[in-house]
Structure formats: C-alpha cells, structure tokens
Amino acid sequence: MKETLDHLAGDWKIYQLKGGHRFSADDLLTAWTAARVCPGATRILDLGCGLGSVGLLALWRLPQARLTGVEVQSISLQLAHKTLAHNHLQQRVELLHQDLRQPIAAGRFPLITGSPPYFPLGKATVSPHPQRAAARCELHGDVFDYCRVAALHLGEEGRFVFVHAAADPRPAQAIERTGLALLACQPVHFRAQLPPTVSLYTCAWKGQRQDPAPFVIRDESGLWTEEYLEMRRQMGTHGLVNPSRD
To answer: Which of 99, 105, 110, 134 lies at a C-alpha separation of 20 to 30 Å from 124?
Structure first.
C-alpha cells in the first residue's frame, strides 16, 4: 500500500497509508487540550497510539517531554517508527508493541492521552482494511479499557485527556468506574449549526468539573472559525489559511 509523508506540526512530518487510517482534527484537538491542561508534563503516555499522531503532536507542543506510545497493530507501529526516524525523535520516544489491555511496564505519568475507537462491534460496518477497522471499531479495547489502564498509570496530580463520540454516554460511565474525576467535557462542533461530533474529556484523581464552551471548527458558512485557526497556529500546523466551503 502506498505511503504518504505529510505535515504534522512545525517541521515534523508523519508517515501514513494513502488508503489507511490517517490522523484527523480529533487527534489535533486531543493533543492541544492535553498540552493546555498539563503544560509542565515531562512524560506522556499515549494509549493506542496508532501512527503516533496524538502523542507526537503533544510532544511537539511540550518540548521538555518524552513520550511512551502503546500500539498493538504492526502496520501502524512500523509507520510510527519511520516517522520517528524521519524527524530524529528516537531519543524522545519509546514505542511499545502490545495490546494496551495487557500489563504495561511504564510506571506513572503526569499526562496520558488516548483516542479510543468510537464504535462497539455490531454498531458500525467494520472496514476490510485492518488498520482502519481497529481505529474505528472496538477490536482492541473500548473506552472502559482506556480509562482503566489510564487510572493504573496516572500520577497523583496527573491528567488524562481523551476524545470520544459526543453522543455516547459510556465515557462518563468509564471515568466514574475507575474512580477518576471528570474535570472537563468540551463538545466539538465540526459545523456550527450541527450537533457536536466528538467531545474532549479531561480527567484527574480529584478536582471540580468546569466545562469550557463548545469548540466550533467551521462557522455557518463553512469556513474555519478563528478559534480553530488559533488552535492550529498554537500547534504548528499549516496549510490553507481558510479552506473553501465544502
């Protein structure tokens, strides 16, 4: 399958499969949120890291940090290793090839990120492409697994940030089951007039919940909002200043 080498952040690039799973605005927003809620983090654990996009974006924003990524799929891990080599990041990143539901020998972290698949088996069509299938459907764990593992590795003052489908009640249930506290839930509207597509969750061991205003990517006319453009500037992304309506 054909690989592409695409812009990630700053002068960093990422290897992806042309017809496979590719990083998205969900990943960018998750990393941006993580860096904001834990700006002093020196270690990051990215669960189900896939291509490495969430963890690497957070790493770019936190230049003092080191990253540990956990990924079960060989094809994604191979691409992630190529990305590390291209960007000369091998000294800052460790990739563990394993199912995140198995014991992880990595200690505790001040910052943990994750992008669990959104769909239970039987609730969505499973892609014939194994990489895309596992990114979309819960073949290697669900949000309950991600929250459970995050709780095992989250430091006393740490933060766990993840993204999930906005209409799904399970993230709140999974957080409560682990004993973590939900500090913030931020819905993300991909278009101003449409319901939120995903929500960004921030968790800790303690603290009061304060939900930020919903994040809007495109306004009613289909153009990127100023808040989305500002987030992209902060995260070192580039491209069209504001794409045409689609």
So the answer is: 99
Q: With contact defined as beta carbons under 8 Å apart, do 174 and 143 qualify? A: yes
Contact yes or no for 29/200 (Cβ under 8 A): yes
Task: Give the count of beta carbons closer than 10 Å to the beta carbon of residue 116.
Answer: 25
Query: pLDDT tens across 98-136, in order?
Result: 999 999 999 999 999 999 987 665 665 555 656 654 556
Question: What are the residues whose beta carbons fall under 8 Å from the beta carbon of 148, sequence distance 6 or more?
Answer: 174, 177, 178
**Domain locations in the chain as residue ranges:** 3-234
Residue 38 and residue 31 in contact, taking contact as beta carbons nearer than 8 Å: no
Which tens digit of pLDDT belongs to each residue from 38-70?
999 999 999 999 999 999 999 999 999 999 999
CA end-to-end span of the chain? 28
Paired tokens of 74:
């060989």
CATH architecture of 3-234: 3-Layer(aba) Sandwich (3.40)
**DSSP assignment letter at 75:** H
Whether this model's pTM surpasses 0.70: yes
